[in-house]
Amino acid sequence: MAKCCWLPWLIIILLPLPPCDGSSGADVDPTAGFAAVELTGDMFKLHKPYDLPPEQRYEFRDGVRRMWVLCSDRPFSPGSTTKPRSEILLNKTYTSGVWQFEAYGYVPSGTTGVSILQVFGASGRNTTLMLHVYGGRLMYYHDEARVVDGDIYDRWFRLNVVHDVAGVGKLAVFVDGERRLTVAGHGGYRHYFKFGVYVQRDPSHYMESRWRDVKVYTKIVD
Ligand SMILES: *[C@@H]1O[C@H](CO)[C@@H](O)[C@H](O)[C@H]1NC(C)=O
Ligand SMILES: *[C@@H]1O[C@H](CO)[C@@H](O)[C@H](O)[C@H]1NC(C)=O
């Protein structure tokens, strides 16, 4: 092939491919190439104020898990110095490979100063990733420079968190199928996901989040 003929080919190759599913051209489905992991009911472990029965801080109805907490609540175990929470520990631990959490979440307006999702397990610290809500914004911890959604209140949003454990690790967060964040991990060798409400900075008196269609995927490695 003559030299002059290469340029158009190069341009074609470098152009992003149009979506094949008739969608508007958002990112590809974050779960593409992943396989769903079977989750059983006993893997959903509720952490709630130790002095209250589950039904005072958790409800599972019509496929929706609703968790709420007050900033004045007790921690999840007597003697713990951690802040109050009503959170589900998804007891599907992983140590290597690429894993993904997917769910539809909902945060009612007014809920602030709270973590709604954690990737637990790290080296020299407890978590590899947390997503906090402050005044309607969803962000990486309390990092103002890493807001993953500017307007999270009062709507169902699709959340996908991909954790590539290898090496130092890296994570990607998608909201409504759109990649919003890519960050390095924090090491560690044993990980799992937690979701719900866990008090952080300047919390509102009442905090709540709702979740449905919670799934965990792992990457098919050929
Ligand atoms: C998680 O499951 C393992 C068994 O797979 C069990 O040994 C462990 O106690 C469970 N952890 C919690 C917090 O329930
Ligand atoms: C991890 O969390 C526990 C409370 O659950 C806390 O006591 C401990 O200091 C934390 N570890 C690190 C390294 O931050």
TrEMBL record:
Keywords: Signal. It comes from the Eukaryota. Pfam families: Alginate_lyase2. Residues 42-217 form the Alginate lyase domain. Residues 1-22 form the signal peptide. PANTHER family: BINDING PROTEIN, PUTATIVE, EXPRESSED-RELATED, OS12G0165400 PROTEIN. This is Alginate lyase 2 domain-containing protein. It comes from Oryza barthii. The lineage of its organism: Eukaryota, Viridiplantae, Streptophyta, Embryophyta, Tracheophyta.
